[in-house]
Amino acid sequence: MSQVLLFGGRSYSATEIAGVDEAGRGCLAGPVVAGACILPVEYDLPGLNDSKKLTAGKRETLYPLIREQAVAWGLGVAWPWEIDQINILQATFRAMGRAVRAMKAEPRFLRIDGDKLIPNYALERDIPQECVVQGDGKVPAISAASILAKTFRDRLMVHIAGRYPGYGLSKHMGYGTKIHVEAIQKLGPCRMHRLTFRKVKPEETPQVQGSLF
């Protein structure tokens, strides 16, 4: 990341800019988790990259290093019942807003992975921001946020798997794998499933009208 970012006629230093990303948006079970992170101008995070391009072991190595070296970081969670109530996009915004508000230092600018900005009502404040498509592989602060979100969520899913056995949640982390879908069909959904998602909610059987003749 360059030390100064120009946006909207204003300049922001690297230590005023938070990267924001989420993990678990496409899952059938578990929460969506967002991370927010401000990195210092200089840091030592070997291999920092999009969390999806790193092994679980590499993410686990970077996770404490990011938290130690970051100017500020935060995590936000939106649970399955929130997702079912307000839809996954709005729940993702909610998680992102919670992550930003959890930071010990308030950022002056946000860089969001993807193609959508966080609405002010989710942030509960007005912070200038831009979205960066594939930002988790381009912007170090977003990469760091993605690692925080993914690692925290994976750890959480391992814990959840112990409370809801039989679904293999600690292996697929709630994604819609064949084994997961088959388990839902066999056991039915648990409290951690997103009941409004296809492959979780029962498919409606078309009713055949009878004939009087």
UniProtKB/TrEMBL annotation:
Claim: Cell membrane is one of the keywords in the record: no
EC number in record: 3.1.26.4
Binding residues for a divalent metal cation: D21, E22, D113
Catalytic reaction annotation: Endonucleolytic cleavage to 5'-phosphomonoester
Cofactor(s) listed: Mn(2+); Mg(2+)
Residue ranges of every copy of the RNase H type-2 domain listed in the record: 15-209
InterPro entries assigned: RNase_HII, RNase_HII/HIII, RNase_HII/HIII_dom, RNaseH-like_sf, RNaseH_sf
Coiled coil, from the record: none
Cofactor: binding comment: Manganese or magnesium. Binds 1 divalent metal ion per monomer in the absence of substrate. May bind a second metal ion after substrate binding.
Molecular function as annotated in GO: RNA-DNA hybrid ribonuclease activity
Keyword Lyase: no
Keyword terms, alphabetized: Cytoplasm, Endonuclease, Hydrolase, Manganese, Metal-binding, Nuclease
Domain of life per record: Bacteria
PROSITE patterns for this protein: RNASE_H_2
Location of the protein in the cell: Cytoplasm
Signal peptide range in chain numbering: none
PANTHER family assigned to the protein according to its UniProt record, in alphabetical order: RIBONUCLEASE H2 SUBUNIT A, RIBONUCLEASE HII
Protein family membership: Belongs to the RNase HII family.
Entry function: Endonuclease that specifically degrades the RNA of RNA-DNA hybrids.
NCBIfam families from the UniProt entry: PRK00015.1-3
Annotated protein name in UniProt: Ribonuclease HII
Organism of origin: Pseudodesulfovibrio methanolicus
